[in-house]
Amino acid sequence: MNLPWITPADRLSSLPPYVFARLDELKARAREQGLDLIDLGMGNPDGATPAPVVEAAITALQNPANHGYPPFEGTASFRTAITNWYFRRYGVKLDPEGEALPLLGSKEGLAHLAIAYINPGDLVLVPSPAYPAHFRGPLIAGGKIHQLILKPEQDWLIDLSAIPEQVAQQAKMLYFNYPSNPTAATAPREFFEEVVAFARKYEIMLVHDLCYAELAFDGYQPTSLLEIPGAKEISVEFHTLSKTYNMAGWRVGFVVGNRHIIQGLRTLKTNLDYGIFTALQTAAETALNLPDMYLHEVQARYRARRDFLIAGLGELGWNIPKTNATMYLWVPCPPGTNSTDFAFSVLQQTGVVVTPGHAFGQGGEGYVRISLIADCDRLEQALQRLKQANIRYAPALVS
Ligand SMILES: *Cc1c(COP(=O)(O)O)cnc(C)c1O
Description:
The structure is a single chain. The protein is α/β, with parallel strands linked by helices and 399 residues long. The protein folds into 2 domains: 10-47 and 293-388, Aspartate Aminotransferase, domain 1 (Alpha-Beta Complex), CATH 3.90.1150.10; 51-288, Aspartate Aminotransferase, domain 2. It contains 13 helices and 12 strands. β5, α8 and β6 form a beta-alpha-beta unit. α3 packs antiparallel against α10 (278-288) and α5 runs parallel beside α6 (133-140). The protein starts with 9 loop residues before the first helix and ends in an 11-residue tail after the last helix.
């Protein structure tokens, strides 16, 4: 029974509808009809967690010393593994006491950071399209979002010069993410330098999501915001073990950067959670210390899928530029269709699930995101089905 006086808080009703929920409904219906779904919709890596990580978890699980509440700020040894990893990868020195905080996956940290820093009415700059937590966190906090619409002509980079002076003056935080989910765009180091100069000029806190730090190909090495001189004073950067190490279900991520910013998040979180199960922090430490050979295998797997799918979509009329990073392709809808209709119609006709770009904000309209989370045999089946249903890309005719 629904009681009319039991209503969610405004902070929930202010959220735009979650497109994934509607997609889930359609997926369930298609499954009921006996359709064999090829789900390339989510960002859920399909591989197993590396064996040494699982073994470390089993051993740690058997030690009763790990069974109690973990320390609020994470174990000292996991924090040290994080800062050592940072130094190895980026040459950036961080203090494990205060400049690194383990998280229950980066998603909660990204959203909770907004709750720790945004008052109702505060202005937050968020690209569109963006990973949903980057705008949903600030919305839950009561913030106002100024969308920075990303465009293919600018290689999906934020155009700082298009931000009105008054908006820049007012803005309190900027969320951004390169290599990007959903566009798969990467940003050159000069872009990071420009963002830091912009943020220092207008006194804006920078929040960079580097969750695809290691899913990069062909020798490309993503930039850490903290490599940029002067960035650490005004920034934090989020990382996750979910993607690189196939650990999405384990819920392990971390944030690094300015100690005062991290302290605010930590204060909020000590009121909400107890952090990550100690046994899992031991396993996560093992993951960060895996030899680079492991990374090369993961990268080779995604690169092979990328090449296979780009070639296959090419035969269907799509001209997708080669991506340098991430596990996604960002694919334009045939002219005249919107992303939701296109994704739903592909699902109904073929059982192939892709994510409508609109789910990532209005700047994602006109595109769908395809995740490289199936092996090439399965991707081949997906391509065959598209071909049979005559789903192709025909560029708009120029009259
Ligand atoms: C997958 C993803 C995350 C979430 O990672 P978790 O650590 O599993 O919460 C965060 N940001 C982006 C851009 C992602 O694609």
